[in-house]
Each structure stands twice: as structure tokens, then as C-alpha cells.
């Protein structure tokens, strides 16, 4: 695994001299953020050694090097999910490659179902913490000591300073950025209303099928993590309507401008 990370990072490193400082993983329907990235270099996942291609609609499957607000970034336009049948180690492989490239800060983005009744579809929420409901963890198995410790601390899994940068960016924009706790479930079924009620009772504000594995792997690596959820729908039972992936993609597209401005402004505030 460690050698594979090196091979992937070496290939990506041949495209650009300056290493990326910030990594961004784009969630379902949020791929259009790359339109606001400057000096783009596109590297399809198929060309990168040991990278798996995406199988989910709305996930493009390429790594983009570029600059956002003069900061060197590496963007994963398309992510891997455990429900695709991949072992967790594969799901977090691209995250670990970003770290190998030199990324110090990681922004995780996703589409999520709103559980908190104060949310409405179209809201962008800054993730303050997560609850792992995937019954899996990417660090299971022998610890790779070169990457991080056996028992990583998760007390500040979502870095407070990075959250503050997003809040300050929202304030500049006059945008009401909400904050919330993300429950990560395995999928691929959407939740039942009973499951959503349970998630609300245990403290979740929103639910989705990603982010938690990458957050765990990045915290293991000692990278600062932050995240944004785009509330694409109210979770099952909160609203009476049935859930559908095309609705998720449509709603994500509608908030694209605000989402892109928020990311760009916040990255400019990263220290
Ligand atoms: N549940 C799980 N994942 C999701 C949802 C949802 O309601 N919406 C977007 N991703």
C-alpha cells in the first residue's frame, strides 16, 4: 500500500513543480466547482497508477491540479464509495495520495439529506463533527506506521480554525452558513424514516454515504480536515416525498455559485 501511494503521487508530481497545499474532494453533483479553478491540469483517474475509476453518475473521475485564490490545490472530481463494493482501504486511497503529494488541509464536500428541521434543501452546512454509522473503518487491519498512529485522536476531527475560515467567508458574502453533525451511512439505499428518526435522536443533523472514511484517513495522517454538506433533500420521513439521485444532482447544481464562492473565499482565508 505504502509503495502504491508513492507510485501514484510520483506520476501526479510530474505534471507540476509546486506541490498542492489544499486538497478538495467534490461530492455528488458538486463537480462543477472546478469551473472556478485557475491554471487547471486534468489527470484522469485511469492514468494514475493504482487509482480506481468512479462508477457513480455525477462523479467524473479525474484529479485536477490548479490554483484557487492563488493557493495550489489538488481536487478529486469524483470520489469512491464503500457501497460500490470497494474495500475501505481503496475508498481512502486517493485521500492518502493527496497527503503524499503534500496536502496539509483537506476540504471534504458532499450531498446530504437534512435531518435538522432548521435546514431546507439548498442549504450549505459546515460540518462540525461526524457519527460513523458505516460499521466499518478504513484503519482496520495492521496499522501503517508510516502514515499515522494506531489509535488516532478524533476530538477535533473537523479543524476549528478551518471551520472559522468558512464562517468568516460566509459572513463576508452575507450568507447564512449553518453548522451540523454529519452521520455517514453505508448506503446505497436511502434511509428508512425510522432510521432517520434514530439518527436525529443520536445527534445527527444530516446524513450521507461518504466523507467519514476520508475524514478518518486524513485525521490518521495528521492533515487538518473540514467539510461542507449541501442539503440536497430532506431525509426520508422528514419530508413526505420519495428520494431520487437526480433530485440530489439537480439541487447541488442550484447552489453551485454560492458553494463555489464559499470555497474560494474560505481557501483565501486559510493560514
Ligand atoms: N441520505 C443519504 N445520502 C444522501 C441523501 C440522503 O437523504 N441525500 C444525498 N445523499
Structural account:
- The protein has helices spanning 2-13, 88-91, 93-101, 160-173, 193-201, 212-220, 245-254, 256-269, and strands spanning 22-26, 38-44, 62-68, 71-77, 105-114, 124-133, 178-185, 206-208, 224-234.
- With 271 residues, it is of the alpha/beta class.
- The protein has a 5-stranded mixed barrel, surrounded by 4 helices.
- Helix 5 (193-201) links the parallel strand 7 (178-185) and strand 8.
- It starts with a helix and ends with a helix.
- Bound molecules: hypoxanthine.
- Hypoxanthine is lined by residues 111-113, 190-191, 207-209, 232-233, 235, 243, 248.
List the helices and strands and how they pair.
Elements (H helix, E strand, L loop, with lengths): L1 H12 L8 E5 L11 E7 L17 E7 L2 E7 L10 H4 L1 H9 L3 E10 L9 E10 L26 H14 L4 E8 L7 H9 L4 E3 L3 H9 L3 E11 L10 H10 L1 H14 L2
Parallel strand pairs: 1-4, 1-5, 5-9, 6-7, 7-8
Antiparallel strand pairs: 2-3, 3-4, 5-8, 6-9
Strand order of the largest sheet: 5-8-7-6-9
What are the distinct ligands in this entry? Answer: hypoxanthine
Task: Please give the oligomerization state of what you see.
Answer: single chain
From the N-terminal CA to the C-terminal CA, the straight-line distance is 31 Å
Using the alpha-carbon principal axes, give the shape.
globular
H/E element string?
Answer: HEEEEHHEEHEHEHEHH
- Helix and strand content put the structural class at alpha/beta
- The average pLDDT value, as a whole number, equals 94
Residue windows where pLDDT falls under 50 for at least 5 positions: none
Count of helical regions: 8
Largest sheet: 5 strands, mixed, barrel
Radius of gyration of CA atoms, rounded to a whole number: 17 Å
Strand residue content? 25-35%
Count of distinct strands: 9
Amino acid at each position: 500500500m505504502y509503495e502504491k501511494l508513492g507510485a501514484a503521487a510520483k506520476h501526479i508530481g510530474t505534471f507540476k513543480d509546486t506541490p498542492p497545499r489544499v486538497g478538495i474532494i467534490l461530492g455528488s453533483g458538486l463537480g462543477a466547482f472546478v469551473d472556478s479553478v485557475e491554471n487547471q491540469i486534468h489527470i484522469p483517474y485511469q492514468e494514475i497508477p493504482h487509482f480506481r475509476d468512479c462508477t457513480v453518475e455525477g462523479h467524473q473521475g479525474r484529479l485536477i491540479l490548479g490554483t484557487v485564490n492563488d493557493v495550489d490545490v489538488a481536487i478529486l472530481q469524483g470520489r469512491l464509495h464503500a457501497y460500490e463494493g470497494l474495500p475501505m482501504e481503496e475508498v481512502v486511497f486517493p485521500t492518502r495520495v493527496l497527503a503524499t503529494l503534500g496536502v496539509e488541509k483537506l476540504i471534504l464536500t458532499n450531498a446530504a439529506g437534512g435531518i435538522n428541521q432548521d435546514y431546507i434543501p439548498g442549504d450549505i452546512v459546515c460540518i462540525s463533527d461526524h457519527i460513523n454509522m458505516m460499521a466499518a473503518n478504513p484503519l482496520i487491519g495492521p496499522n501503517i506506521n508510516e502514515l499515522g498512529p494506531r489509535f488516532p485522536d478524533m476530538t477535533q476531527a473537523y479543524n476549528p480554525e478551518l471551520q472559522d475560515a468558512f464562517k468568516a467567508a460566509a459572513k463576508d458574502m452575507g450568507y447564512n452558513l449553518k453548522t451540523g453533525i454529519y452521520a455517514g451511512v453505508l448506503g446505497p439505499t436511502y434511509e428508512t424514516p425510522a432510521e432517520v428518526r434514530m439518527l436525529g435522536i443520536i445527534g445527527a443533523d444530516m446524513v450521507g454515504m461518504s466523507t467519514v472514511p476520508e475524514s478518518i484517513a486524513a485525521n490518521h495522517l495528521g492533515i487538518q480536515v473540514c467539510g461542507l454538506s449541501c442539503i440536497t433533500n430532506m431525509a426520508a420521513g422528514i419530508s413526505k416525498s420519495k428520494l431520487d439521485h437526480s433530485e440530489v444532482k439537480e439541487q447541488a447544481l442550484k447552489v453551485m455559485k454560492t458553494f463555489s464562492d464559499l470555497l474560494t473565499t474560505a481557501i483565501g482565508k486559510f493560514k
